[in-house]
From TrEMBL:
Entry protein name: tRNA (guanine-N(1)-)-methyltransferase
NCBIfam families found in the cross-reference section: PRK00026.1, trmD
Any one GO MF annotation of this record: tRNA (guanine(37)-N1)-methyltransferase activity
EC number: 2.1.1.228
Organism: Enemella evansiae
Binding positions for S-adenosyl-L-methionine per the UniProt entry: 118, 142-147
Record-linked Pfam families: tRNA_m1G_MT (PF01746)
Domain tRNA methyltransferase TRMD/TRM10-type intervals: 10-237
Function comment: Specifically methylates guanosine-37 in various tRNAs.
Family: Belongs to the RNA methyltransferase TrmD family.
Amino acid sequence: MSEPSADPGLRLDLVSIFPDYFAPLQLSLVGKAIQAGIVSVGVHDLRQWTTDRHRTVDDTPYGGGAGMVMKPEPWGAALDALATAGSTLVVPSPSGERFSQPAAYELADAGHLIFACGRYEGIDARVMAYARERMPVRELSLGDYVLNGGEVASLVMIEAIVRLLPGVIGNPESLTEESHSAGHDRLLEYPVYTKPPSWRGLAVPEVLFSGHHAQIADWRRQQAVELTRRRRPDLLADGP
């Protein structure tokens, strides 16, 4: 994977002890965005910033407890090497704020994102305290569960962010119709259909053949409201 270009639309630096995790970034729309120069990606092995012959990145936690904690020294050196005046540090963490579509839009405008992929019991908290003196820090969680490390979560966030950049999605209007998108009234997306009109005894709703755009829009909104009511009623607390 190439190092960041001098002036990409969005620069991503990914730091991990398992850099091969990020090979999927070369696929699909994200890969095309990289090839087109819309996104520039640098993948870095945290161990290159260690100083001992064993390339140690973790140690036992102060105060006792299970597991190991990632040491601050390699992370501090990594941030010193990668951070610029316009950087934002993204730290996937089960104790972070919930990642959301609004957060994806905010990060898509950031210019330069550094993803710090923790492992074990997490990264020494002083790393985030140090980083906050130099740049915005976003500790973000995908949901109420725990992963083995931050790599998978970073891939999810990167896909959600990159697809919002101009030139990545062929039809930009499709972004406004998706679940959780800005201006979507916090509704889940309505069900979608394609050819054939009947498949294994299941028919496409007749209204979609009507050619009556207002009726179709009303039907889609009703479907979105009902789907949201069944699956995510919390989104309707202040909505329709």
